[in-house]
Specification:
- The chain is of the alpha/beta class.
- The chain contains 7 helices and 9 strands.
- Helix content is 24%, strand content 15%.
- Strand 8 and strand 9 form a beta hairpin.
- The radius of gyration is 19 Å and the shape is globular.
Length: 245
């Protein structure tokens, strides 16, 4: 009995590696990965739209604190994340109010857990998924979450930094990986020498005004990779722009 045409549609076509982009915002990480030949699924608590810019891949509207990384195990090759930086940036300022807030949070275990919840969730999800995980944030996050493994200008990176992605275009070597000579270049930088759409290589959501309310019923934006269905009403409690209670 012959197979149906749909069953043969993917034969002979190599599958693209799959990445998950947490707190994806407009998709700075995602844009580079798509250009490099990856498939990407983004997670955020809201859909970000600024002018004609919007997230360029499949978007799941879900609180990342509710995500179980085990669902990605064996399916996802890379996790990228850009949790919010507002708290870290503010506490790094030399203002008396910033210093007072920092001292208050450090003295209260509950407040500390709340402020670190999203960053720690990204770490947890990567560990549960069992795949390379890269977290981007600001320099001011270091006193709170530990020293970054590397930075490019104001972008500080934690996690499996040398394992970012396979190089499919000409790339230059970057120092800072203990002599390993691994590359850290995305296609958008390779060919233009600039950041994608003039924004961040990684994620711009936490540096821009929120577009909350654009998708109040919590539907997923296209596709059905996680089997949530067309009306993918997912639990929305906390995400890239929220704080834990």
């Amino acid at each position: 009995m012959s197979e149906s045409p749909s069953a043969n549609s993917h034969q002979g076509c190599p599958m693209k590696p799959l990445a998950v982009d947490l707190c994806c915002g407009l998709g700075g990480w995602t844009s580079g990965l798509l250009t490099e030949g990856w498939d990407v699924v983004g997670f955020d608590i809201e859909r970000h739209i600024y002018g004609d810019q919007k997230y360029p891949a499949q978007l799941v509207l879900q609180d990342i604190l509710t995500l179980d990384g085990h669902q990605f195990r064996g399916k996802v090759s890379l996790i990228t994340a850009s949790p919010p930086c507002q708290f870290f940036s503010y506490c790094a300022m030399p203002w008396s109010r910033a210093k007072a807030l920092s001292a208050k949070v450090r003295a209260d275990a509950t407040l500390l857990e709340q402020e670190l919840a999203l960053f720690n969730a990204c770490v947890r999800i990567g560990q549960e998924a069992g795949c390379p995980t890269i977290i981007e944030n600001v320099r001011g996050a270091q006193p709170w979450v530990g020293r970054a493994r590397w930075n490019y200008g104001s972008f500080y990176l934690w996690g499996d930094v040398p394992a970012l992605m396979p190089v499919t275009f000409k790339a230059s070597k970057v120092s800072g990986f203990d002599g390993s000579g691994r590359s850290f270049q995305t296609a958008s930088v390779e060919h233009t020498g600039t950041k994608n759409t003039g924004g961040s290589w990684f994620n711009v959501a936490h540096n821009t005004t929120s577009g909350k309310g654009r998708n109040p019923d919590g539907r997923k934006n296209g596709g059905d990779w996680f089997g949530a269905g067309d009306d993918a009403s997912l639990q929305r409690k906390h995400g890239s722009k929220s704080k834990a209670p």
